[in-house]
Specification:
TIM Barrel; 8 helices; globular; binds D-xylitol-5-phosphate; binds zinc ion
Length: 218
């Protein structure tokens, strides 16, 4: 029996008020806080370095889930671990050695995730699963909030669920998740739903409908 977790992405929060934004989403029932780290190289956008993530840490009472969209990634793992990440996810495409990257994340004592871009086949993680606490299936091309959900990825989620079997590995979905698409990914086997604009749309976190039965319905 999988419990659906909601992980709002603070990429869509008010950048001048992160502390208040994090407290507000947690008060509304956020299970994890998703932090999108972008390097202007692996993805065409720039966001949070380790000092920013360290500044978020004291405000996060739940789980700080750090999604690294950076390449090469290995040299930065320790810095994000020290900044206070609970979960660190790297992209399989950030290579060249994702198996080594996952070993490095595990060596910091943090939970380890591996992410798949929409164009990457699910088989890319087959030999990485034993080093993973989570697989992140991107349902948009990474780089920006507010993009349109890519429906072909629902089948990928279902195939990944089959590949994982009974192993205690989360399937996270990120990109275009809202009350309309959440049930599709949850039915396919995802259990951690990232949502940026659906939560923060309109510059407000006061969107209790997002945390209602719609998003958590299977
Ligand atoms: C995209 C990021 C996502 C993004 C999701 O590269 O990884 O976490 O913030 O935003 P929405 O929910 O608006 O698609
Ligand atoms: Zn993300």
């Amino acid at each position: 029996d999988r419990t659906i977790k909601i992980a709002p992405s603070i990429l869509s929060a008010d950048f001048a008020n992160f502390g208040a934004e994090i407290r507000a989403i947690e008060a509304q029932g956020a299970d994890w806080v998703h932090v999108d780290v972008m390097d202007g190289h692996f993805v065409p956008n720039l966001t949070f370095g380790p000092p920013a993530v360290k500044a978020f840490r004291p405000h996060v009472k739940t789980v700080m889930d750090v999604h690294l969209m950076i390449a090469p990634v290995d040299a930065y793992i320790e810095a994000y671990a020290e900044a206070g990440a609970d979960m660190i996810t790297a992209h399989v495409e950030a290579g060249p050695h994702p198996h080594r990257t996952l070993q490095a994340i595990r060596a910091t004592g943090k939970k380890a995730g591996i992410a798949l871009n929409p164009g990457t086949p699910v088989e890319a993680v087959e030999y990485l699963l034993d080093l993973c606490d989570m697989v992140l299936v991107m349902t948009v091309n990474p780089g920006f909030g507010g993009q349109k959900f890519i429906h072909s990825q629902v089948d990928k989620i279902a195939r990944l669920r089959g590949m994982i079997g009974d192993r205690p590995i989360h399937i996270q979905v990120d990109g275009g998740v809202d009350p309309a698409t959440a049930p599709l990914v949850a039915q396919a086997g995802a259990d951690v739903l990232v949502a940026g604009s659906a939560v923060f749309k309109g510059g407000s976190v006061d969107r209790p409908d997002v945390y209602g039965t719609n998003m958590r319905a299977i």
